Amino acid sequence: MGLLPEAHRLRSRGDFQRVFSEGKAVELDAVRLVHAPGSGRVAVVVSKSIGTLARRNQVRRRWREALRGLLERVPPDRDLVLIVRARASRLRGREVREVLEEALANLER
């Protein structure tokens, strides 16, 4: 498992606030994908309802790794924040990738 490349990470509080205030959302059962004009950066946020900090970090790493494999599908003119909901915490490998592909496909519409 690896990290997202530095150039693709959305990190600052101001960037998050901008995406949430200016952005639009794609709603799915498992995730909410908020997107706003930007430079192709992404972040993964995990709901506190998932459980302990260790469990949330485990879920965050799983989703970040799946997202890393789909970076070429992230529009270069959008910043994305992926909010992982509690019902998504049990998804594994291929299921996580399928949900991400669906969210990114909805984003392109």
* Number of continuous helical runs: 3
Determine and state the CATH class: Alpha Beta
Radius of gyration: 13 Å
The name of the CATH architecture is 2-Layer Sandwich
Chart the SSEs and their pairings.
Elements (H helix, E strand, L loop, with lengths): L12 H10 L1 E4 L3 E7 L4 E5 L6 H16 L9 E7 L8 H15 L2
Parallel strand pairs: 3-4
Antiparallel strand pairs: 1-2, 2-4
Structure description:
The protein is about 40% helix and about 20% strand. It has a single domain (about 5-105), classed as Ribosomal Protein S5, domain 2, CATH 3.30.230. It is an alpha+beta fold and about 110 residues long. The longest helix is centred in the middle third of the chain and has 16 residues, at about 55-70. The chain has helices spanning about 15-20, 55-70, 95-105, and strands at about 25, 30-35, 40-45, 80-85. It is globular, with a radius of gyration of 13 Å.
Care to give the gist of this entry?
This protein is α+β, with helices and mostly antiparallel strands and 109 residues long. It is 38% helix and 21% strand. It has a single domain (6-107), classed as Ribosomal Protein S5, domain 2 (2-Layer Sandwich).
